[in-house]
C-alpha cells in the first residue's frame, strides 16, 4: 500500500473513532466554480449586515493563501440531530444550539486528530477551522464527496440528511482525494415552498439577509416590521428548510453527550420563555451558542414574536 493511501485510511479511521460522522479529503486549490457565486452573493448584498463576509475574498477561495504550503483539505461532519425535542407549545430554537457551543466541541476533536496525525505520520503543519474563519465549508465538504449542496444551500447527504456541523483541517500533507457525489434534489421544492420569509430566492440561491437565522442571530438592530408574523415562532435560528427536506428522514440522533440540552430548554412553554430572567438565561444557555444573541437579543426576538 502506498503512503498516501495508508495515511488517508489512518486519518479516516481516527476521525471515525473521534465521533465524526464522516470524513472526506480534497486537494487544497483555488475554488474556481465558487468564485462567481460568492461574488454574486456579495454584490447582491445577500449577506445583509454580515460585513465580515466581504473580508478576505481571496482567502475564502484559496486555502493555500490561508495556510501557506497546504496540500489537502480534510472535511469532517459531526452529527447534532437531537434525541429529544422542545415542547410543542414553545418558541423554537435551532437544533444545532440545543447543547454546548459546537465551536469548542469540534475544535477539541480537530486538535486531537491533528496531534494523532503528527504522532503517527510525522511532521505536519496545519490549521483547524470551525465556521470561524474565511473557509467555504460547504464547498469543501461537497468537493470531498460528503454530500451535495441542496436547493436550500445546505450540504445534503443521502445517508444522513443535513443536521450536522462541518469543519476542516487544512494541512501540508498530500493525501488521496475523494470525488464529489451527484445532486439528488431532483424536482423537489419542499424547502423553497416552506421557507416562511422566502429567503430561498431561486433553487440553490439563498438571500441570507431574509433568513430567520440572520434576523434572530446576526442582525443587531431592530427587527423589520415587514416580517412581523413570518417567523413561525423561531426565537433563535431556524430549521424549517431542513425539517421539510425528505433526506432528513434518515437523520439519526447524535452520540455526543455535550450536545444534550438543559432540561428546561425542552420543557419550557411560551409563557416560560416570555418570563425568562437573565439568571435563568445564563443557567440554560451556559456555554451555548445561544449566548451569541445575548439576553437582550433573545428578549428582542421574543417581543417580536409576541406582538
TrEMBL record:
<feature type="binding site">
    <location>
        <position position="185"/>
    </location>
    <ligand>
        <name>[4Fe-4S] cluster 1</name>
    </ligand>
</feature>
<comment type="function">
    <text>Catalyzes the conversion of epoxyqueuosine (oQ) to queuosine (Q), which is a hypermodified base found in the wobble positions of tRNA(Asp), tRNA(Asn), tRNA(His) and tRNA(Tyr).</text>
</comment>
<dbReference type="InterPro" id="IPR017900">
    <property type="entry name" value="4Fe4S_Fe_S_CS"/>
</dbReference>
<keyword id="KW-0560">Oxidoreductase</keyword>
<feature type="binding site">
    <location>
        <position position="241"/>
    </location>
    <ligand>
        <name>[4Fe-4S] cluster 2</name>
    </ligand>
</feature>
<feature type="domain" description="4Fe-4S ferredoxin-type">
    <location>
        <begin position="173"/>
        <end position="205"/>
    </location>
</feature>
<feature type="binding site">
    <location>
        <position position="131"/>
    </location>
    <ligand>
        <name>cob(II)alamin</name>
    </ligand>
</feature>
<feature type="active site" description="Proton donor">
    <location>
        <position position="131"/>
    </location>
</feature>
<feature type="binding site">
    <location>
        <position position="60"/>
    </location>
    <ligand>
        <name>cob(II)alamin</name>
    </ligand>
</feature>
<feature type="binding site">
    <location>
        <position position="155"/>
    </location>
    <ligand>
        <name>cob(II)alamin</name>
    </ligand>
</feature>
<keyword id="KW-0846">Cobalamin</keyword>
<dbReference type="InterPro" id="IPR004453">
    <property type="entry name" value="QueG"/>
</dbReference>
<feature type="binding site">
    <location>
        <position position="152"/>
    </location>
    <ligand>
        <name>cob(II)alamin</name>
    </ligand>
</feature>
<feature type="binding site">
    <location>
        <position position="213"/>
    </location>
    <ligand>
        <name>cob(II)alamin</name>
    </ligand>
</feature>
<keyword id="KW-0411">Iron-sulfur</keyword>
<comment type="similarity">
    <text>Belongs to the QueG family.</text>
</comment>
<feature type="binding site">
    <location>
        <position position="188"/>
    </location>
    <ligand>
        <name>[4Fe-4S] cluster 1</name>
    </ligand>
</feature>
<feature type="binding site">
    <location>
        <position position="238"/>
    </location>
    <ligand>
        <name>[4Fe-4S] cluster 2</name>
    </ligand>
</feature>
<keyword id="KW-0819">tRNA processing</keyword>
<keyword id="KW-0004">4Fe-4S</keyword>
<feature type="binding site">
    <location>
        <position position="166"/>
    </location>
    <ligand>
        <name>cob(II)alamin</name>
    </ligand>
</feature>
<keyword id="KW-0963">Cytoplasm</keyword>
<feature type="binding site">
    <location>
        <position position="195"/>
    </location>
    <ligand>
        <name>[4Fe-4S] cluster 2</name>
    </ligand>
</feature>
<feature type="binding site">
    <location>
        <begin position="238"/>
        <end position="239"/>
    </location>
    <ligand>
        <name>cob(II)alamin</name>
    </ligand>
</feature>
<dbReference type="GO" id="GO:0052693">
    <property type="term" value="F:epoxyqueuosine reductase activity"/>
</dbReference>
<dbReference type="Pfam" id="PF13484">
    <property type="entry name" value="Fer4_16"/>
</dbReference>
<keyword id="KW-0479">Metal-binding</keyword>
<dbReference type="InterPro" id="IPR013542">
    <property type="entry name" value="QueG_DUF1730"/>
</dbReference>
<feature type="binding site">
    <location>
        <position position="220"/>
    </location>
    <ligand>
        <name>tRNA</name>
    </ligand>
</feature>
<feature type="binding site">
    <location>
        <position position="191"/>
    </location>
    <ligand>
        <name>[4Fe-4S] cluster 1</name>
    </ligand>
</feature>
<dbReference type="Pfam" id="PF08331">
    <property type="entry name" value="QueG_DUF1730"/>
</dbReference>
<keyword id="KW-0170">Cobalt</keyword>
<keyword id="KW-0408">Iron</keyword>
<feature type="binding site">
    <location>
        <position position="245"/>
    </location>
    <ligand>
        <name>[4Fe-4S] cluster 1</name>
    </ligand>
</feature>
<keyword id="KW-0671">Queuosine biosynthesis</keyword>
<protein>
    <recommendedName>
        <fullName>Epoxyqueuosine reductase</fullName>
        <ecNumber>1.17.99.6</ecNumber>
    </recommendedName>
</protein>
<comment type="pathway">
    <text>tRNA modification; tRNA-queuosine biosynthesis.</text>
</comment>
<dbReference type="InterPro" id="IPR017896">
    <property type="entry name" value="4Fe4S_Fe-S-bd"/>
</dbReference>
<comment type="subunit">
    <text>Monomer.</text>
</comment>
<feature type="binding site">
    <location>
        <position position="211"/>
    </location>
    <ligand>
        <name>[4Fe-4S] cluster 2</name>
    </ligand>
</feature>
